[in-house]
Design goal:
heterotrimer, A alpha/beta (193), B alpha+beta (250), C alpha/beta (595), A: 193 residues, alpha/beta, Rossmann fold, 5-stranded parallel beta sheet, B: 250 residues, alpha+beta, Ubiquitin-like (UB roll), Alpha-Beta Plaits, 3-stranded antiparallel beta sheet, 15% strand, globular
């Protein structure tokens, strides 16, 4: 982590550019993105420090080279894997954000069941199901047999735990990185819930 | 005073009496050593290994280590801290610790010790074992997902409650808690919320029914104060408090 | 079959209803009914005063005890790496196919169960299996074929051809211990003539150290036990020879049992014990009868029982306890727990068994070979013993040699023998590596074959498995990590979880998905086990991985993916269920290896 940060720091010292940040939601509830927005008026300060690349916030759909990629959500389907790999390939520092990205979280509770059971319950045997069949449109990403935290699919450089991580946690992380400091959380910012 | 026996813990002199473990003496002196399977009110067990300390280059569980004169105990080197973090991470990937969906969150010692250790992620590959819930007891729940096999309920039920409701069965990674009833269900045992064992679980494996988020997340025991400050007594008081205030709605 | 109630009644009447009898009773019930019926648990609970939950937990701890019925023919293939090298997997698959049975699941008609088990101690004459607990050696396709016929025809195991059950001693080299016969009772006579202090001095002078591997001085141990004040003392012979690749105690118990019992009685006489236990691993059940006979001969000769050799107050007798498939019980405090009828979880130490062992009383726990040597030292003296070996490792040591060599078997060498010498003698050619002291031991590369086996250099509990250059050492490593996963008692975090994590990473290397990052992880986890596990078995469990990583790095590196990271699981395989359920097989329905 320290090494990666210092890379970014060096480059930033060279050209006083902002940190380029991208974010992506995988299998999650979007709560982590909401929490990022909870930094409230500090967002004006933040946009002085960072520039957003691909993120649902800007609605930019493709990713360019970024300093930081923030990933919310667990890895539940083939599209999640594609998105995650794309972020990994384009971001210097990839960050797992929130319980689902860090541990699989709530979506991973489906790991208690076989995928077959899940899909059959939803699409075949469930109450009120009409025309029972498991959807097979090629537009619908295939589900992995289990939901995984992102570090089990790509190399991850940093973790922001919490459900969601608080706005202060995002703030601390991004301002530390922007300042070229080693990220350090006080006790109050480390939470898993 | 000059006859008082002491050992050193991170350079500080810790007085001890004969028969004290390093853990006993350290806690009494106000020095925190992380622990999960240990509760100072009950005999030590030594299974979780989270209380590992360094003595003469060897690492050993401080809850079972007899204090001796002149010992030089390392409770805070990066080596020790890293080892503890890894042990905690192992415990997290072994079960299914979905903190956001757990009523114990914020009051949970596994979390609290991990917060204290600065653990940001479970790091290892999750096992995602398939485990069930035992909801057969009228007042208590058992969540196999969260059990860390500390054995506290086993010991306390046997030695304090004189009931032997629990045992750890199986072996290796297949070890699991079992209940003393012909059906194997908790509801068919003589377990009661007034048992000491009902309030001793460090995680959310044994919880009262009919209680949900009365204290909101974010306002719980370890949300404000680290476990090193909270202490074991307060933690147990809170757990007991929940048990006495719980119960089905009128 | 006898009804359960009267069977249990007889059992309890014959061998007692104290809680420490639990494991032995369970073994007897398992043998009679091929499982532990629910009703048996209730009766035992009531009669022994043990809560049923504790009985379940004991049953589920021991691999040879089951709550559900096994097949009438209960077959376990030994799965040490040496058995694998001799083709046990194919033989087992063939047998399963012929008998139409899935591994681990009883056949529908209840006739047969087949599964793998940890090393059964027949590495010198494998592949081996146990049928209803009795060892069958030298398996071939022909032998399996015949067994299948016997099973389908319902021929009782007792009526199978005797040659199936022949277990050779295979003693290939004898030295001072095996050459020198011990006249029955002579060590005890020596004790009566010379006195306990003189014998202890002999032991001290001999320099005899424990032969199980830890190497604690036998004389010191006995003295500590004797000096620990208590109303009872105990002597325990550790014959739970579970370390993969080790079988020398099997030979001693088969052909030198009398000497072993003599050593136990000698120890009892010195420390003031009236009772001794031989803890025999369940895999050696076939030795039980001759051991019992030997005990009876000794009782008849007044070498056991009351007033031994006419000496007023010299009372000592020996009881054999069986294990039931648990490697950890080889650890002395776990063994004591098991003797007390419990799960074999190693105790916290201190206190050590010499002050607080069986039933919290001072207890000497010695290896089979240690007791045999002690008896000889009592007769022939300490000088005789220390005339062989090295200053810190006196006397001779028995080695169990197996694997890629022409003459596997038991070899007795003076301590200090070089590995090269041993390899030459056993006819090992083109050796790539030697695994010394079993799965928990050391992996030795050829450039270290000059080293001496001795506490001063490479210590050894006595097993030596040879691997030639055709062998894939990673298969050995994986066999050992699986072994440790299977055998971890589960008590402490690092061994229970870390052992499984290590195994999974070694598997990842094996299938060719691992990167240098995974190797780094293996080392880190291994160090945590070494440093923080609760018992000696946990701290040594990562040895084979760490040793091979250091000394045979190519075993790993040639399999690594040249990337900084690969997923923890096979992504494409993780989509297989979805593909099946949707019937899709398009480009988007697949995930290639990580990038």
């Amino acid at each position: 982590m320290v090494a990666q940060m210092s890379n970014i720091q060096q480059r930033n010292q060279g050209r006083k550019d902002k940190l380029i940040v991208a974010t992506a939601p995988l299998c999650g509830c979007f709560g982590c993105h909401m929490s990022l927005l909870d930094i409230d008026e500090r967002i004006f300060e933040l946009v002085e420090l960072v520039e957003f690349d691909r993120t649902p916030v800007t609605d930019i759909k493709t990713i360019g080279k970024c300093d930081i990629g923030l990933i919310e959500g667990g890895v539940a389907n083939a599209h999640n894997v594609h998105d995650l790999r794309e972020f990994r390939a384009n971001c210097d520092t990839l960050v797992a954000v929130g319980s689902c990205a860090v541990t699989g979280g709530i979506p991973a509770m489906r790991n208690q069941f076989d995928l077959k059971e899940c899909l059959e319950e939803a699409y075949i045997h469930g109450i009120g199901v009409e025309n029972p069949h498991v959807p097979n449109d090629v537009e619908i990403p295939l589900l992995l047999d289990k939901v995984h935290p992102i570090h089990e699919v790509v190399r991850v450089d940093y973790f922001l735990p919490g459900c969601p991580p608080s706005a202060d946690t995002f703030w601390q992380f991004l301002t530390d990185v922007a300042a070229g400091n080693e990220v350090s959380f006080p006790y109050s910012l480390i939470h898993y819930d | 005073m000059s006859t008082e026996k002491t050992f050193k813990l991170d350079g500080r002199d810790i007085p001890f009496d004969d028969g004290d473990t390093v853990m006993d003496a350290a806690l009494r002196a106000g020095e925190y050593i992380p622990h999960l399977c240990h509760d100072p009110d009950f005999p030590p067990h030594g299974s979780c290994r989270v209380c590992v300390v360094g003595v003469n280059g060897r690492h050993t569980a401080s809850c079972t280590l007899q204090a001796s004169e002149g010992m030089d105990v390392d409770n805070s080197s990066e080596d020790i801290l890293e080892e503890r973090r890894m042990l905690l991470q192992m415990l997290f990937v072994e079960g299914n610790h979905t903190c956001p969906a757990c009523e114990k969150s914020g009051d949970c010692k596994l979390q609290a010790v991990a917060y204290h250790a600065g653990m940001l992620s479970p790091h290892f590959t999750h096992f995602f074992p398939k485990r069930s819930i035992d909801a057969s007891h009228p007042e208590m729940m058992f969540y196999y997902n969260r059990c860390i096999l500390c054995g506290l309920c086993v010991r306390v039920s046997k030695y304090e409650d004189k009931k032997s409701v629990f045992a750890i069965s199986g072996r290796g990674i297949d070890s699991r808690l079992v209940f003393n009833s012909p059906s194997g269900k908790l509801g068919d045992t003589d377990f009661s919320p007034t048992d000491q064992a009902a309030s001793v679980c460090p995680v959310g494996a044994i919880l009262p029914k009919y209680l949900g988020y009365e204290t909101p997340i974010g306002q719980r025991l370890y949300d404000f104060k680290p476990i090193s400050v909270v202490g074991d007594e307060t933690a147990r008081d809170i757990a007991k408090d929940k048990l006495t205030n719980g119960g089905p709605d009128e | 079959m006898q009804d359960l109630d009267s069977f249990l009644h007889g059992l309890l009447a014959e061998s007692g209803d104290t809680p420490d009898r639990l494991l032995q009773h369970l073994i007897a019930v398992q043998k009679q009914y091929s499982h532990i019926p629910y009703d048996a648990i209730q009766v035992l609970s009531e009669r022994l005063g043990i809560p049923p939950v504790q009985i379940y937990s004991v049953i589920e701890y021991y691999a040879f005890l089951h709550r559900n019925p096994r097949g009438k023919y209960d077959i376990r293939f030994s799965d040490n790496i040496t058995d694998r090298m001799l083709g046990n997997r194919l033989l087992m698959q063939g047998m399963c196919k012929k008998l139409a049975v899935e591994p681990g699941i009883p056949r529908d008609d209840g006739k047969v169960t087949i599964e793998m088990t940890s090393c059964t101690g027949l590495c010198d004459q494998g592949p081996a299996l146990l049928v209803n607990g009795i060892a069958v050696s030298k398996l071939t396709e022909m032998r399996i074929h015949k067994m299948v016929g016997l099973i389908e025809a319902g021929v009782p195991v007792g009526k199978w051809p005797g040659k199936f059950f022949i277990v050779e001693d295979n003693i290939q080299r004898r030295d001072m211990l095996l050459n020198k016969r011990l006249i029955k009772g002579s060590a005890l006579e020596s004790l009566l003539v010379k006195g306990a202090d003189a014998i202890l001095n002999d032991l001290d002078e001999s320099g005899l150290r424990g032969r199980g591997g830890a190497g604690f001085k036998a004389g010191t141990k006995w003295r500590l036990c004797r000096d620990a004040a208590a109303d009872e003392h105990y002597v325990v012979c550790n014959a739970d020879e579970g370390e993969p690749g080790t079988f020398k105690d099997r030979v001693l118990l088969n052909s030198y049992a009398d000497s072993v019992f003599e050593g136990m009685t000698l120890c009892g006489g010195i420390v003031g014990a009236r009772k001794g236990f031989l803890y025999l691993r369940g895999e050696y059940l076939y030795l039980l009868k001759t051991l019992e006979n030997t005990l009876q001969e000794r009782r008849d000769a007044n070498l056991l029982g009351n007033n031994i050799l006419g000496q007023e107050g010299f009372d000592f007798d020996i009881e054999i306890h069986l294990g039931a498939g648990a490697y950890v019980c080889g650890e002395e405090s776990a063994l004591i727990e098991s003797l007390e009828g419990k799960r074999g979880i190693p105790r916290k130490r201190p206190p050590f068994p010499v002050t607080s062992g069986y039933m919290q009383k001072p207890t000497v726990v010695n290896n089979v070979e240690t007791l045999l040597a002690a008896a000889r030292i009592a007769v022939y003296g300490g000088d005789w013993f220390r005339s062989a070996g090295t200053p810190e490792s006196t006397g001779t040591k028995l080695f169990s040699i197996s694997g890629d060599c022409e003459r596997p078997g038991v070899y007795e060498y003076p301590f200090g023998v070089t590995i090269r010498q041993v390899l030459e003698d056993c006819g090992a050619l083109d050796t790539q590596a030697v695994q010394l002291s079993g799965a928990a031991g050391f992996t030795i590369p050829p450039q270290e074959f000059y080293r001496q086996i001795a506490f001063e250099d490479v210590p050894s509990g006595g097993s030596l498995m040879v691997f030639n250059r055709q062998r894939d050492l990673l298969k050995m490593v994986l066999n050992f990590t699986r072994f440790f996963c299977h055998e971890s008692c589960g008590f402490c975090t690092p061994c229970r979880i870390g052992g499984r994590l290590m195994n999974d990473l070694v598997e990842k290397v094996m299938v060719g998905y691992a990167t240098s990052y995974d190797i780094h992880e293996l080392k880190k986890i291994g160090r945590v086990l070494q440093k923080s596990a609760h018992c000696g078995l946990g701290t040594t469990a990562p040895n084979a991985v760490l040793d091979t990583l250091q000394k045979f790095p190519g075993t790993y590196s040639r399999r690594l993916v040249n990337k900084s990271y690969e997923p923890a699981f096979n992504l494409d395989k993780a989509l297989e269920v979805s593909r099946q359920l949707t019937g899709r097989d398009d480009e988007e329905a697949h995930l290639r290896l990580g990038n």
